[in-house]
Target: Glucosamine 6-phosphate N-acetyltransferase
Amino acid sequence: MGGANAISSSIYLFDPDLLKNLDWASLRGYLSPSITSEAPGENWLLVRPLKSEDYNKGYLQLLTQLTSVGNVTPFEFQSQFNSMQRAGGYYVTVIEDLQKNQIIAAATLVTEFKFIHNCGLRARLEDVVVNNTYRGKQLGKLIVLTVTLLARKLGCYKMSLDCKDSLIPFYKSIGYKLEPGNANSMVIRYENLPNSGDPS
Model:
């Protein structure tokens, strides 16, 4: 499959229905004014799973605001997308500006099978980024809380992340707590699940 054709179809990385009916009522007070993944505050914003065509909508350019990306070709992007889709457990969620056909925010939820916690499922939060020009619309909180609720919906017993010192107050403001003994590791536990209070 050639580079141009490799990104022509609109294939989601994961089932978009998973982002419907998330338990936003449990997070009242974290967002003011209140917004959700299904009502993000502006009718030109759309929260959805990553698509194979997002190479052309600036997803990789957005990631360069976070870290080094490299020279990824359309074919390489599609190949990695396909590998993640086949493997399962990757929930890259984005916010699209429908007026500009541009990805403006993203977060990655990665799930991991464990033997502990009754063969439970653990979640990690990675690659959180919001386009610099869209700050002040609560989009950082929205994208993080969307995947936080998604992890709970998937049955994860906890979500963890590593962050810079400067971001600790942000994550604390939406319910994450510092892990004892690790200054830059933060976690949220899903109390409605068995053994969620266990620190492992």
